[in-house]
Amino acid sequence: MFQNFINNKFWIIKNRKSLKNWYKRNFRSPSPSFIKLKILESHNMKNCLWIETGTYYGDTTYFLSKIAKKVISIEADKRLFNLASDRFKSFKNVEIFFSKSEKILQNILLKNRNFNNLCIYLDAHLCNDHKKNIKTYGTQKKALQLCRS
Fold this sequence. Notes:
Blueprint: H1 2-24, H2 33-42, E1 48-53, H3 59-67, E2 70-75, H4 78-87, E3 94-98, H5 101-111, E4 117-122, E5 128-129, E6 134-135
Parallel strand pairs: 1-2, 1-4, 2-3
Antiparallel strand pairs: 5-6
């Protein structure tokens, strides 16, 4: 009982800044990382294959590697792909692919038909690397249009 109290207090202190920031933005995207991870964990299935589009620095990939049987992550930015490949080279249940997800997703699905449970986290988007403050893969003009307005 006391340990739960301590853990909860520590959790609040640890996440206070990101919770306040999210609150100030009326809970608009992006949510704090720990919220995203909790949602992913709640949708995990037994012996699951997770496919993630948009590896970035691999923090979500790392989290998924702890709860999934296998994780496949697709990154279109060469620098981020190289960083992730190096980070996960010793992980037996993680594969990193360098490509745009719309080009290889079908082949990945076909090659992994042996999994009964599949979760896909579509997180690829045009963005800046907020840690390095540089542009990552893609431009608005080259973006794949999913729907028309």
